[in-house]
Every structure is written in structure tokens, then in C-alpha cells.
């Protein structure tokens, strides 16, 4: 079952966050992740507004989990930790009817 990696981000340091994004892109691809949305237009309807929204599809929840805990992604994350406020969740997709 595929899974979605959904991040809502408020960037506080553009330069550091760009380093994160460049490194994270490779780590995500290495685990079969494909971006479906990445910082495009959005409309906040409820909850906290975080102006950068990212959705990536992975082959499975396990692949997304393994990506997050991989050495490559953790190295990328070092650049985001003090450069953003983030919420990140992995959600297994519902199979088509």
C-alpha cells in the first residue's frame, strides 16, 4: 500500500532551508518517493497556516519511514531544524474502490 508524506512548513531561514531541500530531494528519491506537491499555491481552510506544503508519495509506509530515519535524510534535516517550523506526517493511502 502506498503512503503519503505530508509536510506543512514555515521557513525561518531561507538559505539553510534551501540546503535541506536540495539534500532531502535525493534522499526521498532514493526511497522511491515522488513529489506530488511542493510549495505550490494553496488555500488554508482550517488550522495553522504554514505557507510551504509538500506531499510526496512513497511505495509504502515502511519506505517513507525508512527514508525519514535514513542517514541521508537526517543529514538533510540538520539544515531544516533551526531554519523552519514543521509538521510532518506519513499516511497510508486508501486503496482505490
Automatic annotation (TrEMBL):
Record-annotated membrane-spanning stretches: none
SUPFAM superfamilies: Dimeric alpha+beta barrel
Gene3D superfamilies linked: 3.30.70.100
InterPro entries referenced in this protein's UniProt entry, alphabetically: Dimeric_a/b-barrel, DUF1330
The DUF1330 domain, residue ranges: 2-93
Domain of life: Bacteria
Protein name (Swiss-Prot/TrEMBL): Uncharacterized conserved protein, DUF1330 family
Source organism phylogeny: Bacteria, Pseudomonadati, Pseudomonadota, Alphaproteobacteria, Rhodobacterales
